[in-house]
Each structure stands twice: as structure tokens, then as C-alpha cells.
Amino acid sequence: MPSPAPPGTITALSEAIAEHVHDGDTVALEGFTHLIPFAAAHEIARQGRRHLTLVRMTPDLVYDQLIGLGVADRLVFSYGGNPGVGSLHRLRDAVENSWPHPLAVQEHSHAGLANAYSAGAARLPFAVLRGYRGTDLERQRDIISSVTCPFTGEELAAVKAVNPDVTVIHAQLADRDGNVMLWGITGVQREAVLAADRAIVTVEQVVDEFPERTGAVILPNWVLSAVCVVPNGAWPSYAAGYSVRDNDFYQRWDAIARDRDSFLAWAADNDLKESADA
Amino acid sequence: MPSPAPPGTITALSEAIAEHVHDGDTVALEGFTHLIPFAAAHEIARQGRRHLTLVRMTPDLVYDQLIGLGVADRLVFSYGGNPGVGSLHRLRDAVENSWPHPLAVQEHSHAGLANAYSAGAARLPFAVLRGYRGTDLERQRDIISSVTCPFTGEELAAVKAVNPDVTVIHAQLADRDGNVMLWGITGVQREAVLAADRAIVTVEQVVDEFPERTGAVILPNWVLSAVCVVPNGAWPSYAAGYSVRDNDFYQRWDAIARDRDSFLAWAADNDLKESADA
Amino acid sequence: MPEWDSAEMMNVAAARELHDGDVCLVGVGPPNLAANLARRTHAPNCRLVYESGAIDAKPRRLPLSIGDDDLAATATAVVSVPEMFNFWVGAGRIDVGFLGAAQIDRFGNINTTVIGAHAHPKVRLPGAGGAPEIAAAARRVIVIVKQSPRTFVETVDFVSSVGYGPTGRERVAPGAGPTRVITDHGVLEPDPSTNELTLTRLHPGVTVEQAVATTGWVLKVAEGIQEVPAPTTAELTALRGLRNREASDA
Amino acid sequence: MPEWDSAEMMNVAAARELHDGDVCLVGVGPPNLAANLARRTHAPNCRLVYESGAIDAKPRRLPLSIGDDDLAATATAVVSVPEMFNFWVGAGRIDVGFLGAAQIDRFGNINTTVIGAHAHPKVRLPGAGGAPEIAAAARRVIVIVKQSPRTFVETVDFVSSVGYGPTGRERVAPGAGPTRVITDHGVLEPDPSTNELTLTRLHPGVTVEQAVATTGWVLKVAEGIQEVPAPTTAELTALRGLRNREASDA
Predict the structure, then answer these.
(1) CATH code of the domain containing D125
(2) Which residue segments constitute the domains of chain B, with CATH numbers given?
(3) Which residues in chain D have Cβ-Cβ distances shorter than 8 Å to B219?
(4) Phi then psi for A66, rounded to 5 degrees?
(5) pLDDT tens for residues A225-240?
(6) What pTM was computed for the model?
(7) Distances (CA, A) of A130 to A112, A139, B149, B181, D190
(8) Is this complex's ipTM strictly greater than 0.90?
(9) In terms of pLDDT, which residue wins out, D146 or A9?
(10) Residue B125: which of A127, A151, A215 has the nearest Cβ?
């Protein structure tokens, strides 16, 4: 269960990461293309966290960066590409060449990992889905198995629950009590937050009252550990209503990340070098 | 899978019921206190449907009426009271005294029936939950059983999926394409609609464009069989933004339903007598 | 003003079980009254969760049902019923579940389903509703029920929600179970070693004999039984205000 | 204007597989282009569903990712990713799933995970994403992939998504499987009795020999093989318009 922040406590990002993200933790930074918590990820790297297990449906640039910086020992994911562009070169370099060090991999389908978070949010040990059947993903028996329906005898896939130590998301709004609101493509954020022991949210803005937004997810302050105001904290991803996706950067990243030296130069330019020294 | 209405088709309630609700069907009229589809229920009774299996988490007055009118052979439910008032007397008379004829009962907890709808909506044969353990509800082994987690060995409850032939709900809005929007307490309506083979929705109003409403559920026209404009179709329940709950009627119902004669008089007054003759 | 009846004393005693900051799952009937009373007196920051999906509801008047618009309109968030039971109740996010009972036995097992046999009941009661999973998962369960030999029975006709199981030793659920049973006569608590419900406190003016006489089993009485403080003026004012608003709204 | 290259022909042929009114689950890359092309040409009422949660998205320009704001902003509804996979994909509400492949074998089994061994891959590919369940549950699966001996392989290094199984007889999923494989050379369809992918149509100007030479197994060729109609001016205009807007947006 999340350790609640005193309702209304809005803290600095550096404090939130220092207090709630520890070496060796299982950390999920979620956001499906939209609302990816880049600023929080960079703060994790700046604080020199090590040996993390990183969980995320779509690792995207944010995990390419963390992996290249040597923050992660393990990756749990379902799709590790730069959408519409190509490979995540730092992820590939880690898996293919163990640079900067080896990266263990557990992989799911989207359906499987989404259900694993949902089971985690319900504090159930597993979820049932019609999936994985016949794929080689099923060989990961420690996370993907099967159950038999007690009513029909049908065999179905079972996926082990995912319960991160910490989930980090970015959202559009917090109110003055520290309740959080996000909308647009909300992905698996609700489930990832509720599955975690602790949850950190960066937001674009604090408001007196939430607007009406169809499709919004609202998270009460008592399931959150920290709320931090970080405008544009999702760049180069976006926050609907606040920014647009920086597709240019997504394409430029391909060249930056393709090469270790250009990656390290980028990291140095962004005050992210320290973690890469590990 | 729902047989889709041609998008944009908005039909008369009498036609929708005539076409999609058949004798012997399993019918779910859902709505958790809010947005209960009373008008559609009365149309089902007026058209003289028989031998229905009625599914609903909270039978409420709407099923007390249908049961008293002899429409149902069986009830699947989780809480059969008049909330804040007391018993559902027609439900009791049917179960205790077989009036107007015997009523078979399958009963769940709220958690169980909500998950049974969710499994139905996903076309899974069952759902897993941490529930029912140690209760006598578990004796209904044809609908409540157990499964063992393949990862932890923990034994959990399994509930058989519910897939109604028809689900009927009431909503605030349809757009001109027949997409539907509801908000406020939306209960289990999304799951009940998606679990059904066919779905009928009565709405307060048709609009050109949906407003923004936090917490709204939107159902695309292609999962709906019919959309019918029935202002105040949830009375004496309510539609947030359009009406308030007629708590007076909920209290008066206790006296109306307590006695067979006063119930039949009420039915006659409301043009619902025919079905009761069965 | 401090003239009060036993039902008022029961509601006040139940409300006092809720601590400020608790997350409370509120059921229909007396639990609804007790939780809202707590929020208007000593526990203004308790968080009311209704199984209809309203989280942090701040009802302006006592809701007649658990799905009144006022609950949704004043809630921090409204979620679907499946989400409520899976992600909030089942996940163990509820500190206190308030439950009622038609029958309760000495080990806190509750019947709200039938009097008589399930297939051919003498009295068909409303059924389990949200209670089985609330009873299992809430960290503490508070039962509010008037005492009578028909209600406090040796064996419940049907186990709708589990307390400590048939012999008091079968509870396997994550929550602590029925830690308090608040009646119109006093308060019962499970014996720490046997889980048998034991009379630990009496309301002012009630005798042990009355409590024993209205219990269908041989009621265990704690040594050094204490008296529940009488309702304060503030409590009675708030309670009656809630009730009046309920009436004027209904 | 009707000058076109093989990639354009492939995208046009893929788009034509989508019928008006179809519910189409759109993946990243070429499927995204084909589905949006269909919606701008012969299938204006096809319904685009993106695994990010957007249902009935009507993108005004080609989205670069499957989570662009334009998809959410123009969708009839946006749902969570778990709901998308459970209630929409898994429930069988998708008529057509468009998929890509890094490797595909003669029975339509797809690899998008690794070249080489999973534990120590030579090439780490993006992984399965939404494809395994789309491949299983969509009523028809259309694979879009350029032909080459490295891509059309005897045995895939890793089964990310099942077609008809290792010998063509193991498919147990509810959907019909990969009913069409659209390449830069033509169209392959499963043989009705063996499920072996068989060349049934060629794009204009492509020979059977070219298709055979770019297939890593002994390619079966249908009798009476047909030619795919060349892209129309309308198709090419729409396709290039989409691409240009993609470029100007990116």
C-alpha cells in the first residue's frame, strides 16, 4: 500500500526522488507515448540510482536514456522501440553488448503487462487473459503460465502480477490538496500507480479546482507519496492541453543514441554524466 | 458480439424492445441507483415478455416490478433491497411464496457479479477475485468456484462470466451518430453493455456534440443495437444533470408493493396489467 | 438536550470508532448515519468511500441511498463498480468497513441473506451486496446491529460475510475482521485468544443482564466492564441534524 | 502521376484489404499508413482503433506514434490500455489487425523480438507489443512486410505472434489468422488445406521468379496467379499527401 503524503503536501522533485526511489528498487515510469515522466527519470539518474529494475510497457527514449546511463540492471517491458523511427540503440547496446553493463530482460505482450499491472493494483497475485498462446514468450514460466477455467475447462494464460516499489507518472494537474488529474491517452497509469508501494507524480500545474475532462483519471492524494510541480516534465513526450510531442527530438534521438560517444556527449550536456560513470 | 445498429440509427423504444428482447432471454437492466432504465423495463412488461432471466447487481424497484408482473423465471443479483427503505416485497413474495410464480435465484456479492460482468465483457469464461471465502455463497459451485495461482499457490475465488443476451441501460446523451455518453455514478454499465450480445440504450437527449464530463463513459455506436430517446426514462431513479432521485416514490413503493392488491392496482394504473395476468 | 434513546447512543458509539483520517467504506442504513456523523464531529478528515464508486464523498446531507448524486458530485473521484471492488476494496485500501447484520453469531459471522433454508427461505433478506469482500479486506470491521435473541444467534442461517469462521479460528482474510460490534446495549469485541465476541462496554443505563438476555448464546462478559460515555450535545446535534436533512430530502 | 515504387504499391495493396465499416486495430509503421490510406480512399467509414486506447480515431494527419494527441482528440472514446486489450482486442471486437514483421515463416508465424537466441541476441528487436493478442483475436490479420530471404525465413528465431503454428495446424486462437501477407512483390494467402503461405497475386512488373528468390523457403505459387491493379491516381495522391503531412508534422 502506498505510504501517503500528508494531503496537500507538494514537494520538490529532488526531495521526492531522494526519499522514495532507492538503489535496487523496482521502478515503473509509465505513460503510453503521452505524459512520459522524463524530468523525473533524469532526476533519478542525476541522483545516481543504481541496480534498478525498470518496468514500462513502452521503454521509449526515457528508458533508452536510463539504460545508457547505467541505472538499470533489469528491464520488464512489452515494446522497446522508438515509435515510428526505429530502434532504441542504448537498449540494444545493453542487451546485445552489455554496455555499459549487462541488462536482464523480462518481456511481455502489451496485453500481458497491462493485466500484470491490473492484478498488482488489485493486490491479486496474477491475472487471467486470452493471450500468449503459442508464442515463445510463454517460455518465461516464472512470469507467464496458464490456468484452467473451473467452469468450462478452457486453458487460459496467467500472468504474474507486477507490483513496483515506486511508480512515477506525469500528469496535467494537481489541486491544492495534492489530488491529481490526467487526461488524453491515460494508458496504464492508474493501474501502475495503484499497483505500487509508493507513487510520485509530476504535474504541469496546480489549480484550485479541476476542470471537467472526459476520459480523465483522478488519483486521490492518499494513494500518492509525493506530488511535484514540473512544467513540461514530459518533454519530448507531451501533455495534452499543455504541449505537443517533440517529434523532431524523437527523430534526432536516433542519431544521438546510435553511438556511445554521441550519447555520452548528450548526457554530459544535460547534466546526466555522473550516473554513466558507474 | 453485439449486432450493430446502422450508425446513427435512433429508434423508438417499442421497436427496440420488440426486436431485441425475446421470451426466455437473459436480460440485464443495469444502473447502480443512478440511471436505472425504468421506462425500458416497463416496455418489456407491456410487450408481455416471459421467462426472462433477469441479471442486475441491485434489483431495486425496477425488478421488484418486473418480478411482480411475472416477467422473470430467474434472478441473478447481489443485493435485493430498497436502499434506505427496506425489503423488495414483490421479490420476497416470489421467492418466499412463489407469487405470481416461482423465482429461481442465483446470488453473488457485488464484487463477484461486477467481476462476472467484466469477464463477460472480455469474453473470458471466468474472473479471479479475492472474495467469497468462507461464505455460504460459495455453495453455488456452478457460478462460484476457485483457482490456484500458478505462481504463488494461493487459492482465489473464481466467478463464472455473465454474458446477457441483452443489456439495457439509460444514459444522459446520444450524439447524432448514436454514440452514447453517461456520467456520474456509472456503476457496471460499461461492462454490462460490452458483455451482452445486444445492447439497448435509452437517453435523455440527443446532442450535436458531447460536453466534457469527468468520469464519463462513452460507448461507440457499433457496440449498440439500438438507441432510443426517452426523457426521464430513469424515473424514479435519476439522471445526473437532468433529474433528482424521487426518494418519495422509493418510500411510497414500500406500501404499494407490500400488498398484492395494491401492487396490481399500481400496475393497472400504469398500463402494466397485461403481463401480470400470466 | 442530552436526552437520547438507545438507537442514538448506538449510532454515536459507532461513529466514535472511526478515527480522523480513516478511509471508511460506508454501507447503506445505520453505517451511513454513523460514518457521516463521524465526519461532522471528531473525524472531519475521514474519507468516505461508497461502493457505488464515489471516493472521498463529502455529502452535504445524509444520502438516502449509496448512489445519490450528492455523493458523486462531491467526491474526489468516481470509479466504476468493478474498479471499486478490485482496486480499492479488494486491494486493501479500506481502513474501516461498517456493516449491518440480520443475524450475527458469537464469532462475528454475519447473515444478510435468508432466514431459513436458502432454497426455501422463510424470510428472503436483501443478500450479501458488498459486504463479503468488505468484511474480508477492510483493516477493521465495525458491525452496527441492535441486540435481540433473533439477531444474536447461536448459528447464523447463512454465512453472507465471514467474521472469524464457524469456531472462531477459520478466518483467512487479510483484514482483522469484526473488531467491534456496536449494539443498542453496548460494545462487543472479539476475545484476543478465542475471537468470541465479548461484552466489553455498556451504554449508560444498560445492565449486563439486559445484554445477556438479548443475546441468543451465553454471552461472555469482560472483567472490569466499562461504561460508554453518553452522547455529547455536539454529537446529538449533529446526529439529529443529519436525520432531519434526510427527512427533508426524502 | 501514376509513377510509383514498390513500397507505394505495397501500402496501397494493404489499404485495399480494409473494407468500409471494418473495425481496424492499427499498429505502428506501415500498418498505420495503410489504415489511414484506406480511410481516405475506399473505406471512409472504417473505424480505426489504436492500442493506446483511442477508439474511432480520425487523425487529421498521419500520426508518427500510436499515441499522438490527434488520435485522442478525434476519437469517439479513449479507454485505458488494460481496457483496450481486455474489452476490445481480447473480446474479439476487432475485424482487421494490421501487423508488421521482422521475420515471418511459411505458416505466418511472426518474429519481432530477436534475431539469434533470446538470452544472447544478435539483434534485439522491439518485441511483441500488442501483436500477440491482435494476431490471436482479430477476425482477419493482414501482415505488411517487404520480401527478402532474411525476412521470409524457413523458421523464425522467436515466435512473437502466432500465425498457424509450427506446422500450420496448431492455431487455436479465435480469429482466422494471417489471411493476407502484403509484400513489395505481391500478396500471399494461406493455402485453404495446409495454411502454407502461397503467392496468389503479383504487383505489376514483378515476376514469380523475383518473389521466389526473395523467399527463404520454397515458395508455393498459386495456379492462375493474378496481377494486383496498379495504384490509382487517387490512391497515390492520398498516400503521398499522408506522407507529406507526416514529414511536415515531424
Answers:
(1) 3.40.1080.10
(2) 13-125+161-268 (3.40.1080.10)
(3) 77
(4) -65, -40
(5) 999 999 999 999 999 9
(6) 0.97
(7) 9, 16, 16, 29, 24
(8) yes
(9) D146
(10) A151
